[in-house]
Amino acid sequence: MAVLVAGCASLEEKYIPNHVGVCSEPEFDSGLQVFLKPLNDWVIKGQPITFEIELRNFSKRPIRVPKNPPLLLFWTYANGQRDNEIEDPYPIGSYTDNNTIVIPPGSKLTLKKRVDTYYFPKCGITEFQVIYNPPTSDTPDISSLWERESTSNAYGIRVVEPGKTPLLSRPHTRFPGGVNRSHGNA
What we know:
Elements: E1 21-24, E2 32-38, E3 42-44, E4 49-57, E5 63-66, E6 71-76, E7 82-84, E8 92-93, E9 100-103, E10 108-115, E11 124-132, E12 136-137, E13 150-151, E14 154-160
Parallel strand pairs: 3-14, 8-12
Antiparallel strand pairs: 1-14, 2-4, 4-10, 5-9, 6-7, 6-11, 11-13, 11-14
């Protein structure tokens, strides 16, 4: 008779989202910080989720980014399965003054993204994040294009069955940046 023994460190536990609201702070090297915020903490399965994404310049110099920045939205469903948008995460292109924008120090660029939920495998909490993937410019005169990856805060949203009312339904009024949870301190 054979016995299989595994230590705690040898088995990776499947991550299951369990928090509605801000789950983690953004990860960034310096300069460009990405913040992700949904318009609401919950959505009825089948309805789209709309996010506001802020690119904030925390550096002391202007930062240039594409007008349509390379943002890759990814998420973990309530069952632990992971998914993401299907886009080119590392675009290569010719960037000029016409298709880029400068974010001055202390300023931000706000964008919106939508995710359909009709295909979500399970209702419950789904956790989202977005990555700014630095584009590769084949235009040598655009040297100030931001070239570092930045990952946003993680944000949990409750996905509910049609006809059900979620427990948390208060929309947010501010972006995360300290404690900003729908059920905590504002």
